[in-house]
Amino acid sequence: MTEKMKLKICGMKYQDNMEQVATLQPDYLGFIFYEKSTRHFNSESILELPKSIKKTGVFVDADIDFVLEKINKHQLQAVQLHGKESPEYCNNLKKRHAELVSISHPIEIIKVFSIKDEFDFSILKPYEQVSDYFLFDTKGKLPGGNGYTFDWNVLNNYPSTKPFFLSGGLGLNEVEKINQFVNSKASRYCYALDVNSKFEIEPGLKNIEDLKTFKKNLSTILDNNKEIVMNYNVDEKGYYGEFGGAFIPEMLYPNVEELRQNYLKVMAEPDFQKQFDKLLKDYVGRPSPLYYAKRLSKKYNTKIYLKREDLNHTGAHKINNTIGQILMAQRLGKTRIIAETGAGQHGVATATVCALMGLECIVYMGEIDIARQAPNVARMKMLGAKVVPALSGSRTLKDATNEAIRDWINNPVKTHYIIGSAIGPHPYPDMVTRFQAVISEEIKWQLKEHEGRENPDYVVACIGGGSNAAGTYYHYLHENDVKIIAVEAAGLGVDSGESAATSVLGKEGIIHGCKTLLMQTKDGQITEPYSISAGLDYPGVGPMHAHLAKTGRAEFMAITDDDAMNAGLELCKLEGIIPAIESSHALAIFEQKTFKPNDVVVMSLSGRGDKDLQNYIDYFKI
Amino acid sequence: MNRIVSKLNEDKKLLSIYFTAGYPEINDTVSIIQDLEKNGVDMIEIGLPFSDPLADGPTIQDSSTAALKNGMTTEVLFKQLESIRDTVSIPLIIMGYFNPMFQYGVEAFCKKCQELGIDGLIIPDLPVDVYHNEYQAIFEKYGLINVFLITPQTSDARIRYIDSISNGFIYMVSSASTTGAKSGFGDEQTAYFERIGKMNLNNPQVIGFGISNNETFTQATKYAKGAIIGSAFVKHVTKHGVKTIDSFTKSILN
After folding, report:
1. If you average pLDDT over residues A64-74, what whole number do you get?
2. Using one digit for the tens of pLDDT, what is the confidence trace for A200-235?
3. d(CA A41, CA A51)
4. C-alpha neighbours within 13 Å on the C-beta side of residue B200
């Protein structure tokens, strides 16, 4: 279940009764705008309620104009759609609400689905992006308010991460059942309980004493279950636990705020979705295969699947994010794109999408990296990008990022900054994660085809800033049976002074606009990391990963240059795949950790090794 | 009364100078402060150097890197400032990025500032809402004024919000840019200065970024209570050393 389960009391009708109910401080109060209902709300106004209570209008296949009129008239913050409203309807409602009522306070859309004993969850999919919550109610004669529960075990198979309301027949007699539910997997994404008819003296008139008792019982249940209350996604303020936020100079505020206000809205647009999916399919070549690595599995006596992000166009997972962000930039009317790059993979992925869309592209790259990554510099230039050397500080990725941020400060109006990792000020970590989440979305159905189940025992990915890891974990974050392993670069050894193992060596601090774990002196100066892999050579880690480390949700492992290089070469020989050195770090864990023969381990093979050929040649004297 | 507030109450246009502590030499801090006061400067921003100064142009980046190389740290700076109030009476502000303060401990940092006689802080990457929600009470407990930046892109509503949180002055960034000299102010800037002037804010404004000489200083103070010079001063000490501060201030004020 999500943080603290909320309470919604529905079917309010009488002003005096409403006033009493409001003293119980429910999170939502529902008003039914459906003439055929015995609880039809037809008063001229709703009395003033405390701000913490969200006024929710319940509608059944109503005209959008009618809904908007009610929202406006009664200052509703949420609408609950009980009829056969289509995804387009939801989307139009959101859009028109933004245009006509308020752009800063989007209306919450709660889409209702009725469940009997079985339910085809695939019908939720088109509503994922156009609604804020789902509500599951008992299927009966009437659209809601039938007064009995459905079999909540159905929710064990809930495939989504969208928070939902549980409704239908909840009363005092159900308290024990709710207790069991809260303790079960079925409640994992349960956001709120919705009560109505079981607390009535007559339709629309609530029994205050019974509601009081129920609320008290519910608090007791929730207090006893605190340990399972954990959210690994970003919260509404932009934090993952204590990490994240937007620590930016005022000069960047308008840009970052514009993005924050729009990114979810834009990503929810069906047109955007369609274009993103199409480009991923036709241009990037997705879905990327989930490959059962037979010989590797045999050697380590476990079942290893490789998610082949290395087969994407441009050779790594990076392009998933740049495609998403270039579409975002276009929607926001930006014409000039900037990016930072370390090894050049993100720079190439950005230059590629800029060429695709015909936009100006400037890539900042540390002077030292420019010298050691010549082929990628050439690629970017061929793709039409301007590569600008970062000459300050240590002249590597960290400084390239500083320069890109400075560019954005100096060009605030028409420029979009495509950050390449799950770092930066909110909303970047979340936005990048959402674009990369296609990785775990695919793993789910692909693994089902291979193994008959969506959840592996382990998901594994290497971490620099952490974008491929974020995408690989995303749909598994709240699946407690899936263990998460994050692999950092130990460089010459964690204690050698030449390392990038941030979870071990880092302390909480602020880097590039977010609060996270970072490597720094005790005086708070950011230090230089080291790894043979340019992609892992970053002194911080994305805030989501800092939270995963801090809470123990993910196990962090550190792999040295030597172990990574050997694991990379081993994959070449056993499977005929030359991995990027970043990915080789993940592969090296099999020498360090023993898995059971029946364990299913899914590992993100984040990139291909072409760019690292010279490194492999030098290292192995090939 | 906080020295910044008393200074703002004086009937004159204020010249404020920024310098990077520990630059050009580690022990120049105290003498720079004393010389600036002696030469008619009204307020000083002591720059606590940071490894990754996002909002700064090349001049202050380089001076920060050099200062860190010279061994400047928060501890060292505090040590240097121990007796500063024996000789200096103008307002002193520490300007720096948030991470070093965060590592020192925000409350410990503020307490130390009060002990030393520091009057305020400018922290470009501590956003106003985070300050408001988490740190304002601590700053106020130790009598420190926190100064916020606004830019030509800052909306009127946000300026009003910043004004409501501020209790000293508002740092008006002259144009959308990092620190460092530009070639004077154009129509766009003067329109922005006028627009802010007409808002009748509670806090006076001091203009910074792009002030480098008498002309830009005069232009800026036509619209604001004062102006801040940073990069141009750092450049001056790089070129002419710390013994010629008088010639710099003269070139601005005359």
Report:
1. 93
2. 999 899 999 999 999 988 888 887 765 555 688 898
3. 20
4. 0
Would you please indicate which residues of B are annotated as catalytic (active-site) residues? 45, 56
* Tokens coding A622: 């090939």
Give the contacts of B170 (CB within 8 A, at least 6 positions apart): B147, B148, B149, B150, B159, B162, B163, B201, B203, B204, B205, B206
CA–CA gap between residue A180 and residue A299 (Å, rounded): 43
Contacts of A412 in chain B (CB under 8 A): 151, 153, 176
What is the nearest CA distance from A364 to chain B, expressed in angstroms?
14
CA dihedral of A211, A216, A217, A221, whole degrees rounded to 10: 130
A124-178, pLDDT tens digit by residue? 989 988 999 999 999 887 766 667 889 898 898 888 888 999 999 999 888 888 9
| pLDDT given for residue A367 in this prediction | 93
Token look-up 């039409």 returns: A384
Q: What is the mean pLDDT of chain A?
A: 92
Q: Which of A330, A331, A390 is nearest to A360 (CA)?
A: A330
Whole-number pLDDT of residue A39: 92
Beta-bridge mates of residue A114: A137
Which residues, other chains included, contact A442 with Cβ-Cβ below 8 Å and sequence gap of 6+? A286, A287, A288, A290, A307
Is the pLDDT score of A2 beyond 70? no
Q: Find the catalytic residue in A174, A200, A340, A570.
A: A340
- Return d(Cα A407, Cα A429) in angstroms, integer: 20
SS3 B45: strand
Token pair for A195: 């009560």
Q: How many residues does chain A have?
A: 622
CA A285, chain centre distance (Å): 22
Distances (CA, A) of A60 to A32, A45, A109, A143, B56: 9, 20, 13, 8, 56
Q: Which residues in chain A have Cβ-Cβ distances shorter than 8 Å to B173?
A: 250-251
Interface touch A392/B65, C-beta < 8 Å: yes
Quick: pLDDT tens for B151-166: 999 999 999 999 999 9
The CA distance from A310 to A535, in Å, is 14
Q: What are phi and psi of A409, to 5 degrees?
A: -60, -40
Backbone phi and psi for residue B20, each to the nearest 5 degrees, phi listed first: -90, 120
Closest among A523, A517, A515 to A500, alpha carbons compared: A517
Contact residues, chain B, for A250 at CB < 8 Å: 124, 127-128, 148-151, 154, 173
In this prediction, residue A509 carries a pLDDT of 97
Chain B residues within 8 Å of chain A (Cβ atoms): 50-58, 61-62, 65, 68, 73-75, 97-104, 124-128, 130, 148-151, 153-155, 158, 173, 176-178
CB atoms inside a 10 Å sphere around CB A277: 13
Q: What is the pLDDT of residue A506?
A: 94
B86 Cβ neighbours under 8 A, 6+ residues apart: none
pTM here?
0.78
Nearest to B99 among A393, A411, A509 (CB): A509
- What is the distance, to the nearest Å, from the Cα of residue A38 to the centroid of all Cα atoms in its chain? 41
Mutation for testing the B interface, residue in A239, A247, A426 having most B CBs under 10 Å: A247
List the beta bridge partners of residue B122: B95, B147
Of A568, A570, A542, residue with least CA distance to A556: A542
**The token pair that represents A308 in the structure block:** 């082949």
Q: Other CB atoms closer than 10 Å to residue A464's CB: what's the count?
A: 32
Residues of B in contact with A409 (CB under 8 A): 54-55, 176-178
Q: At what angle do helices B231-240 and B245-253 cross, to 10 degrees?
A: 140
A37 in active site = no
Give strand pairing partners of A9: A29, A195
Q: Name residue A192's amino acid.
A: A
How many contiguous H segments (helices) and E segments (strands) does chain B have? 14, 8
3-state secondary structure of A610: helix
